[in-house]
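Why do we care about 3D structure at all? Because function follows from shape, and shape follows, mostly, from sequence. That is the central idea of this module. The next example makes it concrete: a single protein chain, its amino acid sequence, and then its structure expressed as tokens.
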Amino acid sequence: MTLQERLIACIELGKVLRQPSEYREAVMKQAEYHNAWFTLDNQQKALDAIARQMLDAEQLEAWVARYDVPQQTDARTVGLVLAGNIPLVGFHDLLAVFVAGHRPQVKLSDKDAYLLPYLLKEWRAIDERVDDYIRLVDKLQGFDAVIATGSDNSARYFEAYFGKYPHIIRRNRNGVAVLLGEETEGELRGLSADILQYFGLGCRNVSKLYVPAGYDFDPLLEILHEQRRIILHPKYRNNFDYNYAMLELNKQPYRNNGCLILVENSAIASPIACLHYEPYSSLAAVQQHLGECADQIQCIVAREGALDLPTLSFGQAQQPRLWDYADGVDTMAFLLKLAP
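And the structure:
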């Protein structure tokens, strides 16, 4: 397939995902049964984001225009080890490999074993040549390069196993937000989504707040309470109850609005149903600290111009553009440099 033919197949898949489908609904119910974190609502959000942000003709053309992607590519086989923390979290890697003209060999996460096979079925129906590119496998073999995503612990094994190949290996990262104390209700509502969308399980979810000394948490807690139905989810509730009990037993101070627990803690990563915060005395100190912790941070949410760092607007943490790469590593540039 030429680059243009691959892009057309992507655009057509986006159109399919924008249309209702009883079969897709059945697949989503199966995925939810297999993994209770994958609620129908969260799966639909992920599919909508893929259709709007990744498979939109204008977005795809703008993405490809940033690179010198040849119409015909000497295809290499790129192994993909996908994560399963949120629905279809590895789709961007798959899309990048396909658009670059290489052949993805995909090892699915056991936690997300149904949605991607469904997408591939729809993709093949659009253009059967897609089947010549993408393979789902139980074990990677015969690959020329690797993109693997996992925890800090699994990344050590990835390094040992895949280190001799061209590779991108991703570790634990989280989103953070820097507040000025003068955010509007709309900005706080956007931040609420950044924190709680996908139950906070995504690497782009905000898990840590930096707040000015003496910050008034009440407006934020009130807006976060608008998402109180999240506590009805059994797995989320179990985590909430456990963390609440541990804080009580340890007599550790916290703030609680009934669906999220805020704890002062210097760590960037926070447990499920918890949100860490840290007061600051100056934005300059925050900026220096964020630079020192850059390898733990996936994205920074803040008001535009607040920091001399790349930031996202409130509500955009889980709405990445095609060129907003995980860990700041340009996946497309990596793929285009693979030697024949």
